[in-house]
């Protein structure tokens, strides 16, 4: 899947373009995995990550977001993927995930992980699949 956006939108990894207020509102008020996240925590997460935004070309308004935690050598975790409810259904989420994968490709990462409760089909179209041996994985600080 390549990063093909509908006309009128663009993707950028430029952190200066991020609408941090909007991102924080989306995630802390509407994303099941980040409800109640403080603005300070969100800013710290942004500062320590690769960040991607989808923007309306005419207005410049940010309409989607994704964050990647990575060592840029062997591993990445795709997280905080969010598309504004007003533009869902246009293929922006799939294009954003594809753009993230394309951006990470030169690093030669062994693995990109993500977790989702409700968007498996979006990620499957981008080539993600369930862990082959989930019993090998462990976590600290589970919900």
Q: Strand content of the residues, in percent?
A: 15-25%
Q: What characteristic shape results from the CA principal axes?
A: globular
Question: Uncertain runs with pLDDT below 50, 5 residues or more?
Answer: none
State the end-to-end distance: 32 Å
The number of strands is 5
Please give the radius of gyration in angstroms. Answer: 15 Å
Chain-averaged pLDDT: 95
Strand order of the largest sheet: 1-2-3-4-5
In quaternary terms, these chains amount to single chain
State the secondary-structure class: alpha+beta
Number of helices: 4
Q: Quick one: biggest sheet?
A: 5 strands, mixed
Helices and strands, in N-to-C order? Answer: EHHEEEHEH
Helix residue percentage: 25-40%
Q: Can you summarize this structure?
A:
With 143 residues, this protein is of the alpha+beta class. It has helices at 20-30, 39-47, 92-104, 120-125, and strands at residues 9-12, 50-56, 62-70, 75-83, 111-113.
Question: Your description of this structure?
Answer:
There is one protein chain. This protein starts with 8 loop residues before the first strand and ends in an 18-residue tail after the last helix. The chain is globular. The mean pLDDT is 95. 27% of the residues lie in helices and 22% in strands. The protein is α+β, with helices and mostly antiparallel strands.
Topology record:
Layout: E1 9-12, H1 20-30, H2 39-47, E2 50-56, E3 62-70, E4 75-83, H3 92-104, E5 111-113, H4 120-125
């Amino acid at each position: 899947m390549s990063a093909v956006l509908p006309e009128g939108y663009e993707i950028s990894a430029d952190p200066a373009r991020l609408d941090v207020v909007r991102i924080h509102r989306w995630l802390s008020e509407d994303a099941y995995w980040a409800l109640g996240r403080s603005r300070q925590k969100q800013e710290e997460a942004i500062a320590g990550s690769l960040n991607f935004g989808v923007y309306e070309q005419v207005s410049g308004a940010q309409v989607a977001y994704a964050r990647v935690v990575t060592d840029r050598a062997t591993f990445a975790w795709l997280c905080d993927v969010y598309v504004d409810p007003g533009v869902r259904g246009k293929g922006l989420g799939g294009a954003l995930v594809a753009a993230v994968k394309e951006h990470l490709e030169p690093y030669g990462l062994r693995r990109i992980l993500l977790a989702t409760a409700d968007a498996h089909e979006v990620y499957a179209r981008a080539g993600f699949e369930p862990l082959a041996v989930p019993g090998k994985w462990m976590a600290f600080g589970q919900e």
